[in-house]
Amino acid sequence: GNSVTQMEGPVTLSEEAFLTINCTYTATGYPSLFWYVQYPGEGLQLLLKATKADDKGSNKGFEATYRKETTSFHLEKGSVQVSDSAVYFCALSPTQAGTALIFGKGTTLSVSS
Amino acid sequence: GAVVSQHPSRVICKSGTSVKIECRSLDFQATTMFWYRQFPKQSLMLMATSNEGSKATYEQGVEKDKFLINHASLTLSTLTVTSAHPEDSSFYICSASPGSGSSTQYFGPGTRLTVL
């Protein structure tokens, strides 16, 4: 079946540090991959996505590359800010459009100044 | 970009009452919408898939008579929590996809339900 595994948090960093949040997946076919971010008390916002192997999604300084050979979609940012503190969810969408997303458990990021 | 709204954002009700939550896609039509429930510090749990013009598909363990879902139009889905009890207190989030082969889903801001 389809599943997503994220690194356990919380992740605590100082401002301007490098960020990596690992995400691996198991899927049949060719899923699309997503990173969503959730700020306290809010819903989920789409951060970036990739729809096929070797695609790189990027937004607001965050990047993730769809690696089919390692079934991974790790999130990275070169220099985090306090405002990046949030919960990050890796998710996949099975091949068929219109099906629900499958989420990882979420990773809490806390950035201090 | 695609925007999904939810109303209300926060609701407090007495045990035994029913609460309706609306989910609207503001600038696109959504054949399919999804309802999730999120417990504190946990991931999202899919409750049901809401299909316009037909019955919702519920996940295993979700009581369809307690969580009534109606998808009356291509831009509106509602979730009614019937005879709410304190254990129904949670954060409810909906999402919608523009369809047409797109797998991207856009999420509403969520509704915090507290049952006293």
Tags for this entry?
heterodimer; A: about 110 residues; mainly beta; six-stranded mixed sheet; four-stranded antiparallel sheet; about 50% strand; B: about 120 residues; seven-stranded mixed sheet; about 0% helix; globular
Discrete helix count of chain A: 0
Biggest interchain interface, per-side counts: A-B, 23 and 26 residues
What does the main sheet of chain B amount to? 7 strands, mixed
Task: Compute the number of helices of chain B.
Answer: 0
Q: In terms of structural class, how would the helical and strand content of chain A be classed? A: mainly beta
User: Main beta sheet of chain A: strand number and arrangement?
Assistant: 6 strands, mixed
Question: What average pLDDT do the residues of chain A reach?
Answer: 93
Structure description:
The complex is a heterodimer of chains A (113) and B (116). Chain A is mainly β and 113 residues long. Chain A is built from no helices and 12 strands. Chain A has strands at residues 3-6, 11-14, 19-21, 23-26, 32-38, 44-50, 56-59, 62-65, 75-77, 86-93, 102-103, 107-112. By secondary structure, chain B is an all-beta fold. Chain B has strands spanning 4-7, 10-13, 19-25, 32-38, 44-51, 57-58, 67-73, 76-81, 90-96, 106-107, 111-115. In chain B, the strands form 2 sheets. In chain B, strands 2, 4, 5, 6, 9, 10 and 11 form a 7-stranded mixed sheet that branches. In chain B, a hairpin with a 2-residue loop joins strand 7 (67-73) and strand 8 (76-81). The interface between A and B is medium-sized, with 23 and 26 residues.
